[in-house]
Amino acid sequence: LVPIRKWAGLWAFAFAGSHILYFLADYARFKIWGQTFTYVGLAAFVILAIMTATSNKWAMKLLGRNWKRLHRMVYVAGVLVVLHSLNGILVYTSLRDYNQALTEMQIYGVIIGILLILRIPQARHAVRSLLKLPKQKHEKVKNMA
Fold first, then answer.
1. Under a CB-based contact definition with an 8 Å cutoff, are residues 83 and 35 in contact?
2. N or C: which end of the chain has fewer CB within 10 A?
3. What angle do CA 117, 141, 72 make, to 5 degrees?
4. Residue 49: which residues within 8 A CB-CB, separation 6 or more?
5. Span 116-143, mean pLDDT?
6. Is the dihedral of CA 21, 32, 108, 9 positive or negative?
7. Among 135, 12, 137, CA closest to 71
8. Distance from C-alpha of 119 to C-alpha of 5, rounded to nearest angstrom
9. Which residues are bridge partners to 35 per DSSP?
10. pLDDT at 53
11. DSSP-assigned letters across all residues of the chain
12. Cα dihedral: 8, 13, 14, 19 (round 10)
């Protein structure tokens, strides 16, 4: 998955940008600015924008070790996106596929939760030993930018 991380992030930003453009186009109809989920979504978008702006080799060199710390904010953005979606679904109970949308967002929340738990070294080690997987070598990944 390492080689596709950058492109997945850029696609997520592109999707979020188009989502915001759609929101602004329909703003007059929905009049939902001020709802909690709009601010949560905006916070996630700002994080994705910062990560997109710093996803190049120049930014990696400029930020040094802090680049990796900054890009770990993707987990915060992921949680915010799920909260944004869940809150939006709950606000619009007239949504035709309410139960399906709610279940889908709950699944995404569980996936992000599992990924966050696996970021904890002890949890990762426990899963590896439980599944009897060999120890993973720490290799430098080339061309991460």
1. no
2. N
3. 35
4. 13
5. 71
6. positive
7. 12
8. 16
9. 33
10. 92
11. -GGGHHHHHHHHHHHHHHHHHHHHHTHHHH--BTBHHHHHHHHHHHHHHHHHHT-SHHHHHHHTHHHHHHHTTHHHHHHHHHHHHHHHHHH-TT-TTHHHHHHHHHHHHHHHHHHHHHTSHHHHHHHHHHTTPPPPP--PPTT--
12. 130
Report the alpha-carbon distance of residue 53 to residue 40 in Å, rounded.
20
Report d(CA 49, CA 96) in Å as an integer.
Answer: 32
Backbone angles phi, psi at 93, to 5 degrees: -70, -15
What global pTM score does this model have? 0.73
Average pLDDT of 134-139? 62
pLDDT in tens, 19-36: 888 877 776 566 666 677
Q: How far apart are CA 89 and CA 75, in angstroms?
A: 21
